[in-house]
Specification:
single chain; alpha+beta; NADH Oxidase; four-stranded antiparallel β-sheet; 8 helices; globular
Amino acid sequence: MVGMKPLDFERRSEEEMRERSESFLTLMKRRRSVRLFSDDPIPLDVVEACIETAAQAPSGAHKQPWTFVLVTDPATKAKIRAAAEEEERAFYGGRASDQWLKDLEAFETGPEKPFLEIAPALIVVFAQRHGESKSDRHYYVSESVGIASGMLLAALHQAGLATLTHTPSPMGFLAEVLERPAHERPFLLIPVGYPAEGCQVPDLERKSRDEILVRR
């Protein structure tokens, strides 16, 4: 039985709420996916704090069905790159539909993924299908891990680090390389670091508020 305690909540004035929400919106509008990383070292304690922030996410029945593997070992990163590029060559070589490849043309992506070795850190997010025992059921796993991953990306950006959400498909090789147990499945691979000097990103426009918000 879970005990109860008073909620730690600070009610703010409307003026402060508006200032905080607009400030955070301005910050997050600068967040972009980065594929050109510097190999400059980053403070790993900052990354670990961001991972702990992600773990504050809500989860189905409070099962917290996630594992975050922080990879900095060069040999391990090289193994991940080799395995990821093997899957990516299959993807670009016939696994992906023509429409999918056409939609990717603007981003100039391909099977080569040097950022997996250049970025000083990789975070591999794993989703736990169940606990260590199959009798320990987990609920809303994808939703819970998705929310935690979003919080992780926001925390890393707020801290001053660049990221990429990389999803080579299939991603089973990550469980093998990182020696994860059978009840965990790879969910997301996130390179983390500083952008390379002169890094450029696609000139994209986000959908406007009126395009994404429906009022009833």
